[in-house]
Amino acid sequence: MPAEIHQPDPQPTVKDGPLATGALAPTLIMAAIAMLGGGLNWWQKVKSGQARPFNVIELLGELITSGFVGICAYWALTGFGVSDWLVAAGVGIAGHMGTRALFIAEKLIERFVEKHFGLKGRNKEGDAP
Q1: Are 94 and 101 in contact (CB under 8 A)?
Q2: 16 belongs to a structural domain
Q3: Does 39 reside within a domain?
Q4: pTM recorded for the entire structure
């Protein structure tokens, strides 16, 4: 009696995740939402006198940082299975927070590493331990 021969699936499997085929368009849309939040944050800084209205470099820095933070938030929230509406809201809020969101993420990661691996981060002066 001949043994059964296993034949591979004729359809190629699509990798799931942020770099999957077809994932670029939603990622760019979420980056735009985050950058909108960053633009609003910059406008608030201009209105309060913390930023100059014609400083294009500061605006670009705010938009790039917000886009990066928004994409990271999009990937994280999508990975956790959060609904699309909450993902969009979280991305906009993260984009508005910009560098503050990066600082919060850094602190959370430091606490996780200290708790689970016993490694200490930088001390208050910024020197290595």
Answers
A1: yes
A2: no
A3: yes
A4: 0.72
Domain count, the chain: 1
Residue 125 confidence (pLDDT): 56
Burial class (CB in 10 A: 0-12, 13-18, 19+), 90: buried
CA distance 108 to 32: 26
pLDDT at 52 over 80: yes
Q: Which residue has the tokens 């790039």?
A: 64
Question: Would the pLDDT of 21 be above 70?
Answer: no
End-to-end alpha carbon distance in the chain: 69
Residue with tokens 């290595």: 128
* Tokens, residue 65: 């940082």
Separation between Cα atoms, residue 82 and residue 101, nearest integer Å? 19
* Average pLDDT, integer, range 8-30: 72
Say which residue the tokens 């979280």 belong to: 90
Residue range of the domain that includes 66: 24-117
Sign of CA dihedral 104, 55, 40, 26: negative
Q: What is the model's pLDDT at position 35?
A: 96
Residue type for position 29: I
